[in-house]
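Priority: medium. Attachment 1 of 2:
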């Protein structure tokens, strides 16, 4: 029973249409970095009492792992920080995402470029903020990109977790400011 409670905790509590703010994290395959950011953000929102205000999801720019669970090393690293990634499944970033989410956060410049190349109508303005996650990092982070840990060892996943946590902390502060300005349903 406790596993089902914990699993529910790390999914967005608010249906997409009811959320005041919608956040999408994007990496290449959606099994390492973006699901880590997804889980970390959900935990931060829960801890801040904001999980009913914000919808969180993650996606990949490539369809290598669609439908798969996050990488076991991502799951283990996140679990060490009380974040459960097991309920998450990889999905592909698609052009309509540009018009559905308030924040679309790439883990690196390469995936940011891949996302932007998906836009078929470059004249249509994107209503949300499209950037790299670490653009929001307020901690002493001197990187712009969250490195892909897939082909490395466990230490790479620890690095990813720390960087994602720093980016999500800054994003959470921005979301809090946005919620103060956003009208309530």
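Attachment 2 of 2:
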């Amino acid at each position: 029973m406790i596993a089902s409670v914990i699993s529910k905790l790390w999914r967005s509590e608010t249906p997409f249409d009811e959320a005041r703010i919608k956040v999408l994290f994007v990496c290449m395959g959606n099994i390492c970095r973006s699901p880590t950011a997804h889980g970390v953000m959900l935990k931060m929102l829960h801890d801040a009492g904001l999980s009913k205000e914000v919808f969180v999801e993650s996606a990949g720019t490539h369809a290598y792992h669609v439908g798969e669970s996050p990488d076991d090393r991502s799951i283990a690293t996140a679990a060490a920080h009380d974040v459960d990634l097991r309920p998450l499944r990889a999905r592909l970033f698609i052009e309509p995402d540009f018009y559905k989410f308030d924040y679309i956060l790439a883990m690196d410049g390469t995936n940011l470029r891949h996302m932007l190349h998906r836009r078929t109508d470059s004249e249509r303005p994107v209503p949300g903020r499209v950037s790299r996650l670490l653009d929001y990092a307020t901690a002493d982070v001197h990187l712009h990109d969250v490195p892909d840990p897939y082909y490395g060892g466990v230490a790479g996943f620890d690095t990813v977790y720390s960087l994602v946590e720093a980016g999500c902390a800054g994003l959470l502060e921005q979301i809090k400011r946005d919620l103060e300005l956003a009208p309530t349903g």
